[in-house]
């Protein structure tokens, strides 16, 4: 698969946080085809950390697309306010997926499986609240 650097680079603010999103694509057509779908949506893509993986990114998200036996794993960083946008994109691609969003302390904030969202916390944890305040989004804004 060809890679593309046509998309927007990840906003530097997201370089400061740990990976906060992970998930899987059940029965995905392969990492290269998944990366091609992201490129088609305007994202950039490059070779990932393994021979068969790809890193895809836009200004609000960078994820590694890594094939495993039968499934494809996703992990990286996403703007917490755009978590559902990532899920909507995967839905638009016609992929079955599950996604989990974590704060920088490793606490689960949200999960979406096959299009169904849940928020185990009513408000953003303190560490996420600090990040949201830096972005001017307020410190008490609910994630869920």
Can you count the helices? 3
Radius of gyration: 15 Å
- CATH first level: which class? Alpha Beta
Note the main sheet.
Answer: 8 strands, antiparallel
Instruction: Report the helical percentage.
Output: 10-25%
Strand content: 25-35%
Number of domains: 1
How many beta-strand elements? 8
**Apparent shape:** globular
CATH fold name: TATA-Binding Protein
Strand order of the largest sheet: 2-3-4-5-1-6-7-8
Structure classification? alpha+beta
Architecture (CATH level 2) name: 2-Layer Sandwich
Order of helices and strands: EHEEEEHEEEH
Terminal residue distance? 37 Å
Give unreliable regions as ranges. 121-135, 137-144
> What does the average pLDDT come to?
79
Mind explaining what this structure looks like?
This protein has one domain (12-134): 2-Layer Sandwich (TATA-Binding Protein), CATH 3.30.310. It has three helices and eight strands, in the order βαββββαβββα. It has helices at 31-40, 83-92, 126-134; strands spanning 21-26, 44-47, 54-58, 61-67, 71-78, 96-102, 108-113, 116-118. Strands 2-3-4-5-1-6-7-8 form an eight-stranded antiparallel beta sheet, with helices on one face. The longest helix has 10 residues, at 31-40. The radius of gyration is 15 Å and the shape is globular.
